[in-house]
Design brief:
This protein is mainly alpha-helical. It has two domains: 92 residues, no CATH class; 137 residues, no CATH class. It is built from 16 helices and no strands.
């Protein structure tokens, strides 16, 4: 295992022993970044990514919290907007990639998605959300799972009858609006499943700012496959190529 600053290892270990669930860990990771000046914050990110690639278990466990914190907890990271520039100046290329922004390779126009939903669903949104969360009928749940409205998908993801196989189908669906895909990425119950992460990151309708945050969480074989996939965003593909070159077998 390559050497990493003791401060980085200590930060990882402090986070790794936290209780309270995924959201608590994510917010704690955000606070850890926010408490550091930008150069040390990017060093922490680079260290967690590197140690995770080397399969150090504590880093592998906390890395998802850091990746999600970058998207969801900007209120706790006051210098978030400067971290990409700092990472570039310090030649931390992998960290620079995780701040990628832009549109997905493929687009499903919001009006087209709304028209498709209108043909499938005639009930009011409130009723659809309630059924999505509570239905015990697997056929109805599968039908609701193809909605483009993220509010409906958010409730589908809470349904106790939902299976991983159906979430994979939602994550892989094409064409797709980005919002339902990002609801899966935000879901603590489902975003830690390797098959679901793979379905998301290989979906060309997923925005690159989310895709690049999933790439470091993949196994080496998936990274290599992603690096060769011409359908995904160039930044996602390039990051996968860089990381797969140094990833330990998983």
């Amino acid at each position: 295992m390559n050497e990493a600053p003791d401060e980085v290892r200590a930060s990882i270990l402090r986070l790794d022993v936290l209780g309270g669930g995924h959201e608590v860990l994510r917010r704690a990771a955000a606070r850890a970044l926010g408490a550091l000046d930008p150069p040390r914050a990017t060093e922490l990110l680079a260290g967690v990514m590197r140690l995770s690639l080397e399969r150090w278990a504590p880093a592998m466990r906390v890395l998802p919290a850091f990746m999600r914190a970058l998207e969801e907890d900007g209120d706790l990271i006051p210098h978030l907007a400067t971290l990409r520039q700092v990472a570039t100046l310090h030649e931390q290329e992998e960290v620079t990639f995780v701040f990628t922004e832009g549109e997905a390779v493929m687009q499903y126009h919001v009006d087209a998605a709304a028209r498709a939903d209108a043909k499938l669903f005639t009930l009011p949104l409130g009723v659809l959300k309630s059924r999505a969360r509570l239905t015990r009928n697997p056929d109805e749940l599968s039908r609701l799972a193809i909605a483009s409205n993220p509010a409906v998908i958010r409730e589908v993801l809470k349904n106790p009858r939902l299976t991983e196989a159906l979430v994979v189908r939602i994550a892989a669906r094409r064409p797709a609006r980005p919002e339902p895909l990002q609801e899966i990425w935000k879901s603590p119950k489902w975003n830690n499943r390797p098959a679901i992460r793979k379905a998301l990151v290989f979906n060309p309708y997923l925005p690159p700012e989310t895709g690049v945050k999933i790439v470091p969480l993949l196994g080496g074989a998936d990274m290599r496959e992603l690096a060769a996939d011409q359908k995904v965003h160039l930044s996602v593909r390039d990051l996968a190529a860089r990381l797969s070159a140094s990833a330990a077998p998983r």
